[in-house]
Amino acid sequence: MNRDEKAQAIEQIAADIEAAEAIFAVDYRGISVPQAAELRSKLREADASFRIVKNRLTKIAADKAGEERLAALLTGPTALTFVRGDTAQAAKAISTFNREHEVLTFKGGFMDGVDVDEERFKAIAKLPSREVLNGQFAGVVASPLTGLVRGLGSMIQGLALQLGQIAEKGLVTGEAPTESAADEAGEVAKDEAAEAEPDAAEDKAEDEAAEEGADDETSNEEEEEE
Q1: CA–CA separation, 162 vs 87, rounded Å?
Q2: How far is residue 173's CA from residue 169's CA, in Å, rounded to a whole number?
Q3: What φ, ψ does residue 78 adopt, rounded to 5°?
Q4: To which H or E segment does residue 143 belong?
Q5: Could you give the CA distance from residue 50 to residue 106 in angstroms, rounded to a whole number?
Q6: Residue 83, φ and ψ in degrees, nearest 5
Q7: d(CA 185, CA 180)
Q8: Could you please report the per-residue DSSP string of 83-128?
Q9: Euclidean distance between CA atoms 90 and 48, whole angstroms
Q10: Which sign does the torsion angle of CA 96, 102, 104, 110 carry?
Q11: Would you give per-residue pLDDT tens digits along the chain (226 residues)?
Q12: Helix axis angle, 87-101 relative to 33-44, nearest 10°?
């Protein structure tokens, strides 16, 4: 490889590292070209790629991408799997391929900030693929419980809207009333009570006058009858 080709390889590997959600490293000694093509085809279904790399260039690319953990895996013949999609499906593809051909040796890897040793890799390979999980989720959504869940969701949404409207009107602030607010409320109550007293007295006087008028009319009617 000339200088330009090496620079291009470093840029490509750095881009693969940055885009990957998980990276798995294997020793590829013994793999044939048709076998590598077969594995690449399986990995493409999981939106992953299989790349045989040069360790020195890959270390430079890892430094460029800010991935320090990769350097420890770059010893001896190395091939990297860059997973951008379904990590479980990619691990399953590698495991299945290796059971059939027994040509790969797992070195290590990492996923979402977690280092992946061989035991963890095997555990990941046993997980359901994303497609299977999506199918299971679709089954749950289609179940009779969906109506209940949606109903509860609508209720919660309606309650949230009502609380929002109450809060906009200043009826709910989330804080206890201040002392000044309490004093103002007390003064308002006193004023209303004071205003109510004359009204009550006036109403009482009118009632008494009406009763007296009724008594007078009754006595007049009695005198006329006599």
Answers
A1: 43
A2: 9
A3: -135, 135
A4: none
A5: 13
A6: -105, 120
A7: 9
A8: ESS-HHHHHHHHHHHHHHH---EEEEEEETTEEE-HHHHHHHHTSP
A9: 7
A10: positive
A11: 888 999 999 999 999 999 999 999 999 999 999 999 999 999 999 999 999 999 999 999 999 999 999 999 999 999 999 999 999 999 999 999 999 999 999 999 999 889 999 999 999 999 886 665 555 445 544 555 555 555 556 656 665 665 565 555 554 444 544 555 445 545 545 555 555 455 555 555 555 555 554 444 444 444 444 4
A12: 150
At 9, list the tokens.
Answer: 């390889």
Q: What are phi and psi of 175, to 5 degrees?
A: -125, 150
**173 Cβ neighbours under 8 A, 6+ residues apart:** 167
Cβ pair 77, 27 in contact under 8 A = yes
- How many residues would you count in the chain? 226
What is Dmax (Cα atoms) for the chain?
A: 141
- Helical ranges in the chain per DSSP H: 3-19, 33-44, 55-65, 87-101, 118-125, 130-141, 145-168, 179-225
**Contact by Cβ (8 Å): 50, 25:** no
Tokens representing 63 are 């430094």
Which of these, 16, 12, 42, 39, lies nearest to 28 by C-alpha position? 39
